[in-house]
Amino acid sequence: MKKTHPLFNKNFIVNELLIKEAVKQNLNLNEFLLLMVFAENDGGKLDIQKITEHLYIKEEDVLEALSSLVQKKLINNVSKKDENGKLSDFIEMDGLFNLIEESYSNNTDSAKKNDIYSIFEKEFGRTITPMEYEIINGWIESGFKEGIIFLALKEAVYNGVTNIRYIDKVLFEWKKQGFTHEKDVEKHLSKQNSKNNSPKELFDCDWININDENKWYSKESKWYDSRS
Q1: Contacts from 175-180 at CB under 8 Å and sequence distance 24+?
Q2: What is the C-alpha to C-alpha distance for residues 89 and 87, in angstroms, rounded to an integer?
Q3: Cβ within 8 Å of residue 128, ≥6 positions away
Q4: Which residues make Cβ contacts (< 8 Å) with residue 27, sequence separation at least 6?
């Protein structure tokens, strides 16, 4: 039994991203229809006669579209033995799958980032500044997990210190202590709360009254500005 590529369990990907890729590749109608046939069957054995009957396209037009799709590296035409041991042509869809997976991954990452920014704006009660946007993006690109960033934000809100410089310091203090998972942070916060430590005691700094924009971030952070 032929296994269908997992991407095709998500119809919206086929309907949206495949069409977007077709537009990006400037496919003509015959190329697009042929690609849709292959996508529906996850590639499989090439049967030119069946395709011409299904799409009502001349054989030479099918062959021309097939050649173009191969040249654009959306599909690959390979020869191998079928279930009867007869050498036949098969269509492999790896090129198309890779492009769709890349697009899907980029869209997912973008959605996650946008969600993070929205949550920060909700908790801050205002629109974040371009500088704050870049810092949040920097945390993500540096490998801070979304859950840990949210815990740092939650800790700041809990202590009534809703600004980026405080959250930046919290994240890098946690990194310095080797916290890589949310459970590590939650265990640390539980111990900290039991000792009833204040934010000032923890970092020995008056974060609320710092107004020098050149000293917004922790020295451990790559965004630290040493212009002062």
Answers
A1: 175/144, 175/220, 176/220, 179/148, 180/145
A2: 7
A3: 117, 120, 121, 136
A4: 35, 68, 69, 72
More confident site: 214 or 133: 133
Q: Per-residue pLDDT tens for 125-160?
A: 888 888 888 888 889 888 888 888 988 898 888 888
pLDDT of residue 62: 92
Higher pLDDT, 107 or 81: 81
Give which of 6, 204, 210 is closest to 104, Cα–Cα. Answer: 6
CA distances, 161 to each of 61, 115, 142 (Å): 67, 21, 23
Which residue intervals of the chain are DSSP H helices? 11-12, 19-24, 29-40, 48-55, 59-71, 94-124, 130-141, 146-158, 164-176, 182-194, 199-203
pTM: 0.42
- Domains, the chain: 7-99 (1.10.10.10), 128-215 (1.10.10)
For residue 98, give both structure tokens. 């890779």
